[in-house]
Amino acid sequence: TAISKSSSTGPPCMVKSVSQPVRGSAHDALSVFLGEWRAEGMSFGGTDQSGIDPKANGVLWVSTHTARWHTGDFFLIQDERAQIGGKPFDTLSIMGFEPGTDAYFARTFENHGFYRHYPLSVDDRTWLLQGETERASTVFDADGDTQTITWEWLRDGKWLPLCNRVATRAGS
Q1: What is the pTM of this model?
Q2: 78 with 118: CB under 8 angstroms?
């Protein structure tokens, strides 16, 4: 398909190669993440983590995160500021729904320079990220005011706990 400039919709510099996405219920489902959250839990990952006792060297995780719609309400932006054992760990995530594949995604960028692209899926109140070496579940309670977040990572062929935390909506 040829890409052509369109003068009939949007500014002349806008390139249009596909039809305009339509916002729908799949986008609305992401709204469960909206708001300000406070979380506490433990982080277990590290070079000394072993499968024998994978939670032996856990350190405290304390964080806040906020989520808002990007202009247009197609993409959700989540900004998390964490202290893990007193050290900063900040993550910016963009979540959305890809109409051509009918699939959710999350792209994450963190302060140590890592970038990840995760397929994201939902089953009732459980959202799942599935990466090659990391995976996570976020389970919302019935009221939508509590998130139970569990991350695992692949070490030596085994999925080990990476971090667990519970986030509550600020003001709840």
Answers
A1: 0.86
A2: no
